[in-house]
Amino acid sequence: MTKSKLRWGIIGCAGIAVRSVIPGIAQSERGEVTAIASRDETKAKETAEKLGIPKAYGSYEALLADGDIDAVYIPLPNNMHKEWTIRAAEAGKHVLCEKPFSMDAAEAAEMVEACAKHGVKLAEAFMYRHHPRYKRIKEIIASGEIGTIRGIHGTFTFNNSANTTNFRNNQAMGGGALYDIGVYPISAARLLLDAEPEAATVHAFFSPEHGGVDMMASGLLEFGGGVALTFDCAMWAAGRNTLEVLGTEGRIELPSAFVSAPNAPSVFYVTVKGNRREETIDPLNQYSLQADDFAATVLDGAPSLFGEDDPTLGMRVLDACLESARTRSRIVIS
Fold it and tell me: Where's the Gfo/Idh/MocA-like oxidoreductase N-terminal domain (predicted)?
């Protein structure tokens, strides 16, 4: 008989896990959090008690040895994603890995290969892609209502400059705006265009005060047919997270494209030949939707929503963006 619930273990007590992912799994239809681990056992126990998690472990290894766990969520610093994804796969656990998936495309390919070898499912935690508004936007694009797509513009910025000790300011740990949030507009363009970019050009501000990471980056990704994504991302700027899809006959605007309040309606706007309408989707928790979609792949054998090679392809684009920013040149994506 098919299991009705996917039993989750959380590897680490990161803020994204505590604030969003664990509550999202708890509110999902087909998931339950069974255990959480930290290298600080006291922290694991305190987090477990706060969030009503039955088990707490003082090591990641101990959690992976728990036979009551089907899948793990990995919100560790970026440079630890590869090691713990592979170790989880070797322990027979399915893996939902926080974005950015890895440090580079080579690591991503190793992670994908390891999970395939051990017969476990693997996905990157881009929660926004699971919200039905993106399916609706793709329907509008496919209908031809806004005409032929000419370009996409995305933004994701916030100001965390005062927190100079944050791991996001550590190059060796995969710090920087491109790794942390630039991946969102990049993945959105790939999703909406159903295509991979051919070249990247990125200009960035590398801050000596923040470990030399990119605190702001502005980029251009070239897709086929003359279509482009223009985007900016920042960890030292006023906050925005928006997306605009521009067509020959109209445009689609998302004022909260990636992060939105889980209990608020999702609103976006469609303008065609000067007539603007609002489309609204009832409140949904996109972290819960992500957990349920992953449960469907594990428990029901449903196909991956975004393709088994999606994480590697995404990292290939990010590699090009980082190389372009560092060398101040246009990088062709092979």
Answer: 6-124
